[in-house]
Design brief:
Length: 180
């Protein structure tokens, strides 16, 4: 009995599935580009993403154009009134400009105080540099300042402590030798 039901079910499936399958195969053979994308789904996905990005960009461009068009249409009556000499909203524009000029004045005042502070600091640096004795060391290596307690102590190995004269005599020598 199972064989009979299986044979009937298979006959029903074959009688409905094969005509549909042959129609699809014929249509795909007639349309080679669609057949290529059916056989290569990654290319289809890439093409779909490109189309989505292009359509979204076009829609954004249309919306921006529409927005700028509406703004132009809404500003047009005010521009016409301005061309005719009507200054009904001049108080609004003037108030906005005064706020900008006030902000500009505040920023310029702040810049001036910062410049004065910078000049004072530069003058102090110049006096400090002029007061220092000329040292043999280059300006790239600032002089080392040692505490008097460091100079008077003897290190644990019993050797002579480092003095500023000994340090300055070794300042021009490289720490590592270049010999290999």
């Amino acid at each position: 009995m199972d064989g009979l039901f299986q044979w009937i079910n298979q006959g029903i499936v074959n009688s409905t599935f094969h005509p549909v399958q042959s129609a699809i195969e014929q249509w795909l053979q007639a349309h080679r580009l669609v057949n290529f994308f059916v056989q290569h789904p990654l290319w289809l996905l890439g093409l779909f993403l490109i189309v989505v990005f292009l359509v979204s960009g076009a829609l954004r461009a249309i919306s921006r154009t529409s927005e700028s068009l509406w703004i132009l249409v809404l500003k047009f009556p005010f521009r016409v009134l301005g061309w005719l000499g009507f200054q009904g909203l001049a108080w609004w524009r003037k108030g906005r400009r005064d706020g900008a000029s006030d902000r500009l004045q505040i920023l310029l005042t702040r810049l001036e105080t910062l410049r004065e502070e910078q000049d004072a600091i530069l003058a102090e640096v110049k006096t400090l540099v002029q007061q220092q004795p000329q040292n043999k060391m280059s300006t790239k290596n600032p002089p080392l300042v040692l505490n008097s307690t460091v100079n008077s102590t003897v290190n644990s190995s019993g050797s002579k402590p480092l003095s500023s004269e000994r340090l300055s005599s070794h300042a021009d020598k490289p720490f590592f030798s270049e010999k290999v």
